[in-house]
Design goal:
Blueprint (H helix, E strand, L loop, with lengths): L11 H12 L7 H11 L7 H10 L1 H19 L1
Length: 79
């Protein structure tokens, strides 16, 4: 993922995990931490890449809703 260009759908789970790790108090979240959480919680999500494409095509409102839902899901698993 490169900063300064459009976010690609495949980067979306990593962004969610980075934000989630920061929210629960681990400010030094690395890409490896995010990757580990994805492998544990979202092992199935890579099979459903068309779903990420669909979310991005529906617009920013749906994107924000999905981000919030995943944050709640991750925080539920962490606590």
């Amino acid at each position: 993922m490169r900063y300064g260009k459009w976010i690609e759908p495949k980067d979306f789970p990593f962004l969610i995990c980075h934000f989630s790790i920061a929210i629960v108090g681990q400010e030094k979240a690395s890409h490896k931490d995010a990757e580990t959480i994805i492998m544990k919680l979202f092992r199935f999500s890579f099979k459903f890449e068309p779903i990420w494409m669909l979310v991005f095509s529906l617009g920013p409102g749906v994107l924000v809703l999905v981000i919030v839902l995943f944050l709640v899901l991750i925080l539920k698993f962490v606590h």
